[in-house]
Design a protein that fits this description.
By secondary structure, the protein is an alpha+beta fold. The chain is built from 18 helices and 23 strands. It is globular, with a radius of gyration of 24 Å.
Length: 563
């Protein structure tokens, strides 16, 4: 079949390809002189922001090298830096940066409050846009059909709102996906794939804080398109899509048949498509993305953490020839690493963007922690990430732990290993990555597969212990559940010295395991979205700390295996 490509889109895609590939190639070239780029990144920060309130208080003008910088500036997390950030958000000039913030990115905080991350033009130019464009280079270079039309990509992270929240000084306060980079920074080419699709700007009637309503509306419109790509970044969003297709099929079919959007007149009726979806669901017994969009090529999301356990089967539900590309290791606060090739999990440090420091993940992260530079890192080891960039975040503990996979041109290539969250009720000091690695080991030993998993520590009169809730891909026999429980407890002792010591001393009992349904995890994700949390912020939870969520996951389940 001959597909006609709109000339205007073709010209835009050509410009987009040139920009993304050029930025990618520029970051590749920087790897050859990575150490020098790191030193220049620090020098640029000190020079540009020496006259700010923060720079004066910390003696930026007298700092000559990394050692001076370490001595002058303690490591801080968001809460510790918040007094300066709040002053900037309230409109005070030159608090953290000489270049005043244009917007404040929104990110969920540890207390549930939304962070205000200052975003300056200088930060966007030097740190953000090179990494950001480079992240999409594989789309343009290796999956050109994804970009040929505006309606080939369902971008689940794209979440524009009709009215942005603002800080006390009137500057926009929004998620990065809600900011128009063209209007705010003059980067009109920065619109992500899928952000010009018909479902990217919904009718006024569905502009609301009802995130599920918007999710339904986008899906209802997207089933009429020939999708080739799904962008989730957060893999939990991608994992929710098959569940939503099955759950909302009757609504979707009715809307297609009647020419409505959630019951309201919209467009033209498509009774042939409605009948086709019903036939597909009846034939297959369910409706998967692969049935709806048989030409799907690409998924773009994080591929590590809990997602590493379920992505192989999730990818199958989207089609047999679908590729999963890893999203960058990054946060609203700034970039860490981006894939400069098609590695399945890892990316190279963005050496021109920031000065990166690291603390071994087994160590407590303190304001005076001794740090390593990128040239000091060891392959296979995990580290807390601390970065400094021109946007006003100085020796900032972003809260992520990364694992060094290898090196490219001497620069570490890292993958996301989890948040720095610790679970420590008996001296076990479990990290998220410990739990994921133990699950992977136990599943490999038993030949079993999961759709999702989570755990929590529980206290008992005799000893604390960990309970796991897991959803099998296929039904397990009782003997398999028992074998997995034993293997999981052994694997936890194998990956975490603290867990092994606590088990040996009797402070921790053996782990136990609850088997639940995949629909429980999908339902819990949907419950949190229905409660008002933006879908991009509803992520897989390694450690489950909410009793109500735990009960919803287990439903009416019985006793745990291993008791």
């Amino acid at each position: 079949m001959i597909v006609t490509i709109d000339p205007e889109i073709a010209a835009r895609v050509a410009r987009y390809r040139r920009r993304t590939v050029a930025e990618r190639d520029g970051l590749r070239a920087a790897l050859a002189d990575g150490v020098a780029h790191q030193r220049r990144a620090l020098a640029g920060v000190l020079t540009e922001n020496a006259g700010t309130a923060f720079g004066v208080e910390h003696g930026f003008a007298g700092i000559r090298d990394v050692d001076d910088f370490r001595a002058a500036v303690p490591i801080r997390d968001y809460d510790a830096l918040a007094p300066w950030i709040h002053r900037a958000a309230d409109g005070e000039a030159q608090v953290l940066t000489a270049d005043d913030p244009v917007v404040f990115f929104m990110s969920s905080g540890s207390t549930g409050d939304n962070k205000k991350i200052p975003v300056t033009r200088s930060f966007m130019r030097h740190s953000f846009f090179p990494f950001y464009y480079a992240a999409w280079a594989n789309f343009a270079e290796h999956f050109p059909r994804v970009l040929e039309r505006d309606d080939t990509t369902l971008n689940l992270k794209h979440d524009p709102v009709s009215r942005l929240a603002t800080t006390a000084s009137g500057r926009p306060h929004a998620g990065a996906s809600q900011v128009d980079f063209g209007a705010a920074f003059g980067e009109h080419l920065a619109a992500e794939p899928g952000t010009r699709a018909p479902w990217s700007m919904l009718p006024a009637g569905v502009w609301s804080e009802h995130h599920l309503e918007r999710s339904y509306a986008r899906l209802r419109l997207a089933v009429e398109a020939d999708l080739r790509c799904v962008i989730g970044i957060n893999p939990a969003m991608v994992a929710a899509l098959p569940h939503q297709l099955a759950q909302w099929l009757p609504r979707i079919v009715k809307d297609l048949h009647d020419g409505t959007l959630d019951g309201r007149p919209f467009g033209s009726a498509d009774r042939d498509r409605a009948a086709e979806l019903e036939r597909l669901a009846a034939y297959h017994g369910t409706l998967l993305p692969a049935h709806v969009w048989p030409h799907m090529e690409l998924i773009f999301c994080w591929t590590t953490g809990l997602a590493s356990l379920y992505l192989p089967r999730l990818r199958e539900s989207f089609g047999p020839r679908v590729t999963v590309l890893p999203a960058p290791v990054a946060a609203s606060e700034g970039p860490v690493a981006v894939a400069l090739d098609r590695h399945a999990t890892a990316g190279s440090l963005v050496v021109p963007a920031a000065l990166y420091e690291f603390v071994p993940a087994d160590d407590e992260l303190r304001p005076d922690s001794a740090t390593l530079l990128m040239e000091d890192l060891a392959e296979g080891h995990e580290y807390h990430v601390v970065f400094t960039h021109v946007g006003g975040l100085y020796r900032y503990a972003v809260g992520d732990v990364v694992r060094v996979v290898d090196r490219v041109a001497g620069v570490p290539r890292v993958e996301y290993a989890g948040r720095r969250n610790l679970s420590d009720v008996a001296g076990e000091r479990l990290r998220e990555s410990h739990v994921v690695r133990a699950l992977r080991t136990a599943l490999d030993r038993t030949g079993l597969e999961v759709v999702n998993a989570t755990c929590r520590p529980v206290r008992h009169p005799d000893a604390a212990r960990y309970e796991f809730a897991v959803a099998p891909f296929r039904r397990w026999g009782a003997d398999e559940v028992g074998a997995l429980t034993v293997a999981l407890d052994a694997a936890l002792s194998g990956v975490a010295d603290g867990y092994r010591a606590a088990r040996a001393a009797g402070r921790l009992g053996a782990a136990t395991l609850h088997v639940t349904g995949a629909e429980r995890f999908a339902g819990e994700w949907q419950h949190r979205v229905a409660q008002g949390v933006r879908p991009a912020q509803v992520k897989d939870r390694v450690f489950q700390r909410d009793d109500a969520s735990w009960e919803r996951l287990l439903g009416a389940g019985g006793a745990a295996h291993g008791e």
